[in-house]
Write a structure and sequence with these properties.
The complex is a heterodimer. Chain A is mainly alpha-helical. Chain A is 70% helix and 2% strand. Classes of the chains: A mainly alpha, B alpha/beta. At the A-B interface, strand 2, helix 10 and helix 11 of A face helix 2, strand 6, helix 3 and helix 4 of B. Chain A: Pfam families: FecCD.
């Protein structure tokens, strides 16, 4: 990465316009506005994510494969047992956690900007539970082949999740559409769809036989214990396609944030842009949900925390993405380690970790009377 | 004040041709023709719900006409890529919304959207345009403040700065003075005039204050029930007869003591007959129109 353009002298000459004199960060022909604070926050979150990832590789379970052994394995050494523990057990789990969290964080950032409401997230808009219906249907009706593993598990569950999530997302936006998206109506419809889907899931579980119900129950608890390379790999491939699209659309979110008319005036194809962004964010949730089951709160909290740390007006997608990954990894480690050997679902700790910090930020920022 | 009329030989850069404008099944205007006078400030006046904003929205490509077409620089506006339209015409909607906590500089920077691409999101050109826009509106000192920290007039100027940062030749402003006190209205309209006179921008704005419209616009367009009833200079448009027809308002028209432009003085039901003694000079004789003239 090239260094940002040198700080302009005019910034010193004209202190009042400090926010105006925003140099550009250039990489080849591409350039972005250089915001020191946002960049610093982004870097700090990236370091946190890397640290959490490393810790997930070093100490996750009771086996005593420590830092030096992990380093050896990563460099291609280590004995068979160590290689197995690090590469087959810990790595997929850490990778799945980071990817799932990142997908949820990014999806939440997009949805909150689209709905112009901080309460919008896959949880409140029913997308997560829509995906869960699809996945649980496959798990339950896939018969013995519909287990967590196997061909149906590998392709059927993600396909079911994607179908369910997309249907839920479009149903929510479609039902709340009255010549534009009104955020309160959107949230009301979303909560209704969300509750309906959640209850349908539980109805399916109650109605089916014990074995299928147990499999489905494990899945909807939202956990990363069952992570393996099949899931991590599939999620990684899907996200490698979706994430660049989502980040490229970031600029449009700024224009959409000013309302439909203003966005149209700025040359945005509003309907098309909203459709693409909605589809992309729903797909992110579906991929995450099919990899780890529904994990609550990350998509709601990560963008809001990132936004407040960066002190910007709309959730920053890239930082939200990194923060979502970090939050999920840390939560998973707490869930796995705090009450060992009992493994709590990661979703419990995403809320335990994220909620107090978010509340702290809201209270502090409110006192500053800036928001 | 001498209105600089555009030369009628050249067709207007932006015009609506036989447009029918509707929201769903509710037709606002049918078969409307309107050409934006180039290099002039045009004020669109008319009672609430007469289709002023709707016309402006159609001209700015915010509303797709149910029939007819809007033409920009000789091409149907729908066939021009939206980005190119946004580099030629800037629209300030009636009630724009901004996310809470948005800084003025960031708002104005969003006006650069049509000049950017997904990989080139900020350039020195963007920087200069934003600085220039803020300078024009006198908002440089407020660049770091959030919109909530501004007064109503400053907020409106911030939004106008955003439209200016688009660097367009045409500027469509939908009620830029709403919710502003008189001093702030003058402030905004002075800016509009300056943009036109010093920077050659073509401006169309929807205004409710007839007297300010007369004072600041070169041309007035009076609309009623979705149709253009009159178009011309303030002296031509602001007559008691027309005001009675368009607004159903009985009024006297006298020369503005400051600018000499027509000044509309409404006559309410409680007033006695307009003061005939207030003899006006020149062509601005005091006339009162019938209150119950048919509006259609």
């Amino acid at each position: 990465m090239s260094a940002p353009a040198p700080a302009p002298e005019s910034a010193r000459r004209r202190p009042a316009g400090a926010g105006l004199d925003r140099p550009a960060l250039r990489i080849g022909a591409a350039s972005w506005p250089w915001r020191p604070r946002a960049a610093l926050v982004c870097l700090a979150v990236a370091v946190l994510l890397a640290a959490a990832f490393l810790r997930a590789l070093v100490a996750f379970d009771s086996s005593d494969v420590g830092l030096s052994e992990v380093a050896a394995v990563l460099l291609g050494g280590g004995d068979f047992g160590q290689r197995f523990i690090v590469l087959e057990l810990r790595m997929p789990r850490a990778l799945t956690g980071a990817l799932v969290g990142a997908a949820l964080g990014l999806s939440g950032a997009i949805l909150q900007s689209l709905a112009r409401n901080p309460l919008a997230s896959p949880d409140t808009l029913g997308i997560g539970w829509g995906a869960a219906i699809g996945a649980v249907t496959v798990i339950v009706f896939g018969g013995s082949a519909g287990g967590i593993s196997g061909a149906v598990g590998q392709f059927g569950v993600p396909a079911g999740a994607i179908a369910g999530g997309l249907v839920a997302a479009f149903a929510v936006f479609g039902l709340s559409w009255r010549a534009g998206v009104h955020s309160n109506r959107l949230l009301l419809v979303g909560i209704a769809v969300s509750l309906t889907c959640a209850n349908l899931v539980y109805w399916i579980i109650t109605w089916t036989d014990l074995q299928s119900a147990a499999r489905a129950q494990t899945w909807i608890t939202g956990s990363l214990h069952a992570a393996d390379w099949d899931r991590a790999g599939a999620a990684a491939v899907a996200l490698a396609v979706i994430i660049p699209v989502a980040l490229g659309a970031n600029r449009t979110l700024g224009a959409l944030g000013l309302g439909d008319d203003a966005a149209l005036g700025l040359g945005v194809r509003v309907s098309a842009a909203r459709l693409v962004l909605l589809t992309v964010s729903a797909l992110l949730v579906c991929v995450a949900t099919s990899a780890a089951g529904p994990i609550n709160f990350v998509a709601l909290a990560a963008p809001q925390i990132a936004m407040r740390l960066c002190r910007c007006a709309q959730p920053p997608p890239f930082t939200s993405m990194l923060l979502g990954g970090a939050l999920t990894l840390v939560a998973d480690q707490l869930a796995a380690g705090l009450f060992a050997p009992t493994q709590l679902p990661v979703g419990v700790f995403t809320a335990v970790l994220g909620a107090p910090f978010l509340m702290y930020l809201i209270v502090v920022r409110h006192r500053e009377a800036r928001l | 004040m001498t209105p600089d009329d555009p030369s009628p030989a050249e067709p207007a850069r932006l015009r609506a041709e036989r447009v029918t404008l509707a929201y769903g099944d509710t037709v606002v205007s049918r078969g409307l023709d309107f050409a934006v006078p180039d290099h002039a400030v045009t004020a669109v006046i008319g009672p609430n719900g007469c289709g002023k904003s709707t016309l402006l929205r159609a001209l700015g490509r915010l509303l797709r006409p149910a029939a007819g077409r809007v033409v920009l620089d000789g091409r149907p506006i729908r066939s021009v890529p939206p980005r190119d339209v946004a580099r030629t015409v800037a629209v300030l909607p009636q009630s724009p919304q901004a996310p809470p906590g948005l800084a003025v500089a960031d708002l104005v920077a969003r006006g650069r959207h049509p000049h950017q691409s997904w990989y080139r999101q900020w350039s020195s050109g963007d920087r200069e345009a934003v600085a220039h826009a803020l300078e024009l509106t006198g908002m440089l000192d407020c660049a770091d403040r959030t919109l909530e920290q501004l007064s109503g007039g400053q907020r409106q100027r911030a939004w106008i700065s955003m439209a200016l940062a688009q660097e367009t030749d045409l500027l469509l402003l939908d009620e830029p003075t709403t919710f502003l006190d008189l001093a702030h209205q003058i402030e905004v309209l002075d800016l509009v005039r300056e943009l036109n006179e010093r920077h050659g921008r073509t401006v169309v704005m929807v205004l409710h204050d007839l007297n300010l419209a007369a004072r600041y616009a070169h041309r007035l367009v009076a609309m009623s029930r979705g149709a253009v009833r009159a178009e011309g200079t303030a002296e031509e448009v602001l007559t008691p007869e027309l005001l009675a027809e368009v607004f159903g308002l009985r009024c006297a028209v006298v020369p503005d003591p400051v600018s000499g432009t027509p000044l509309v003085v409404p006559v309410s039901a409680h007033d006695t007959a307009p003061a005939h003694g207030a003899a006006a000079t020149g062509g601005g004789s005091v006339r009162a129109g019938p209150a119950d003239a048919p509006a259609g």
